[in-house]
Amino acid sequence: MANYEDIFKKVVSHAKEYGYVFQSSEIYDGLAAAYDYGPNGVELKNNIKNYWWKSMVNMHENIVGLDSSIFMHPTTWKASGHIDAFNDPLIDNKDSKKRYRADVLIEDHIAKIEAKIEKDCVKAAKRFGDDFNKDEFVTTNGRILDRQKQIDAINEKMNTSLSSGDLEGVKALIEELDIKCPVSGTNNWTDVRQFNLMFKTQMGATADGSSDLYLRPETAQGIFVNFLNVQKTARMKIPFGIAQIGKAFRNEIVARQFIFRMREFEQMEMQFFVRPGEEMKWYEYWKESRMKWHNSLGMGKEDYRFHDHENLAHYANAATDIEFKFPFGFKELEGIHSRTDFDLKAHQEHSGKKLQYFDPELGESYVPYVVETSIGLDRMFLTVLSHSFREEKLENGETRVILKIPALLSPIKAAILPLTKKDGMPEKAREIMKMLQLDFSCQYEEKDSIGKRYRRQDAIGTPYCITVDHQTLEDNTVTLRDRDTMKQERVSVEKLHSIIAEKVNISKYLA
Ligand code: ATP
To answer: What is the per-residue pLDDT for 2?
Structure first.
């Protein structure tokens, strides 16, 4: 069985080696939880953004875009509840001095029980062979039912304590479960404390004339405060949405797991404004629609699942996560939240300005309800990267490392490779490059043997390699090599554009 930690380590070092992701400020030994995207990384990131934007904004008549500033009036965060409630419960182990999120410690404990259930299932599947029915097994087997009861009881206790702000209760649960620090192996814990995740800074030149500002912890508030500006200028009728891609900042207590949890990251958010009372219908609509978007990339339906929230945030009346099976387990990739009229009402109260919509069909004004879809761009990037990374054993016994990135998202669509550096091949290759580069990102490479160049492009995830050889100069045909099948075929230069266009045709994905 694959060792997931090993695979994850390989993905991280591959990302560095092939110019996808670098540690921030690496020459100064790095800055924790901040990362830089290299030449291939920035292309993949842009392609993901584009895919999201096209599906949200271009394909919906009633969704428009926005790019609001990172700095906002400080009262924004009072109104949104972030100053008072955007906290995580933290706990320290007195022996190792390591800091943890208390809720994550408990969730990790639950994950261990889940893993035991999974193990029981694997064992039973072996024992029963073809007759094994997993659904029946997990609903009837006594040991599994006991384990599930344990999980439910822990979840209930945790949620009750967290939602009532009972931090002593959270600590008591950690002690009751005898959760130990993975580093020191002891259960010598401090009390649980709340920690606000917003970064603070100052605006203005002089100390007394400056005012405290926060770096936005989500892009959503920029959308809410612009609700009427957008509605009026774009002449939108409810239901309608506003989409935005932008940076967000959170002073995360524990920021491990590479780009999964960073202190500076990017979000792709869409706030959908609806009539009060219709929010559940739209919540269900966006749940389904967003899962469809993920599945459209063909990265394996079984690796995605919904996780409905029991412990709701202060602004929500329903919430679910779309989770992806990362190398370290199923974790949140995207959140879909029914945010009620909480935000618009709060901004209305704090600003003294009306944030209402006159509904011509109903003949009345109201504060709309909001359904939000919020996905982390960096987590989507990690999803694509960890899903695509493969080590394939070849017939000749060698291993090839390959990124099977959906072709539409690949940083480079075609590599153009002259077989040798002479006899006019480089010139011909550059001619082909010129023909393709306006529509597709291409790379010209003449160094190393052709086999080595193929391997390098596999490792980058380039769907096509185009090799120019002696025959090209005679009959204007090239060798076209497919990344996934490694098949090579002879095609005429005139056909290259349409072959690549067909492969990366967005309508094939977003049909
Ligand atoms: P988590 O429970 O993992 O802390 P969250 O529930 O606080 O996440 P939301 O506030 O719902 O996250 O944010 C929406 C999305 O933004 C998340 O689904 C995730 O993809 C992304 N996101 C949130 N925090 C981070 C982070 N620190 N680094 C990278 N992406 C993040």
So the answer is: 56
Q: Output the CA–CA distances (angstroms, integers) from residue 135 to 131, 132, 141, 217, 255, in the order listed.
A: 12, 9, 10, 40, 36
Check whether residue 328 and residue 435 sit in a common domain. no
Q: Which domain holds residue 483?
A: 412-510
195-231 residue pLDDT tens: 999 999 988 876 666 688 999 999 999 999 999 999 9
CB atoms within 10 A of CB 445: 17
Examine the domain organization and report whether 271 and 387 are in the same domain. yes
Give the pTM. 0.89
Residue 477 falls inside a structural domain: yes
Nearest C-alpha to atom 21 of ligand 1 is from which residue?
A: 376
Given ligand 1 and candidates 101, 218, 290, 374, which is best to mutate, with the most ligand atoms within 8 Å of its CB? 374
Q: Does residue 499 surpass a pLDDT of 90?
A: yes
For ligand 1, atom 2, the nearest C-alpha belongs to: 332
CA distances from residue 165 to 36, 56, 87, 314 in whole angstroms, order as listed: 37, 37, 10, 12
Residues 242 and 372 in one domain: yes
Residue 1 has pLDDT above 60, yes or no: no
The CATH number that applies at residue 331 is: 3.30.930.10
Query: Which residue is associated with the tokens 């909480």?
Result: 342
Pocket test for ligand 1, best of 35, 90, 260, 261 (most atoms within 8 A of CB): 261
Q: Which of 134-138, 204-208, 440-444 has the lowest mean pLDDT?
A: 204-208
Domain end among 196, 231, 254: 196
